[in-house]
Amino acid sequence: MAMKIIVTDEVAQEGLALLQRDPRVQMDIKLGLKKEELYAIIGDYDVIITRSGTTVDKPLLDAATNLKMVARAGVGVDNVDVDYASAKGVIVVNAPFGNTNSAAEHAMALLLSFCRNVTKANSSLKGGAWKRAPFTGYELKGRTAGVIGLGKVGGRVATRLKAFECEVLACDPYIAEKRAHDLGVKLVSLDEIIRVCDIITVHTPLTAETKGMIGKKELAAMKEGVIVINAARGGIINEEAMLEALDSGKVAGAAFDVWSQEPPDTETLKKLIGHEKMVVTPHLGANTFEAQVNVAVDVSREILHYLDEQPLENAINIPRFDAALMGQMRPYLNLMNVLSDFVIQLADTNLNKITFTYTGNLAQYDCTPITVLGLASLLNRRVEQDVNMVNAQLVADSMGIVVEEAKSSQTEAFSNMITITIEGPGEKRLISGTLFEGVPRIVKLRDYQMDFRPEEHMLLMAYGDRPGIIGKIGTILGARDINIASMNLGRREKKGEAMVILSLDSAVSPEVVEEVRAATEATFVKPLYLVTAK
Question: pTM of the predicted model, to two decimals?
Answer without folding.
Answer: 0.67
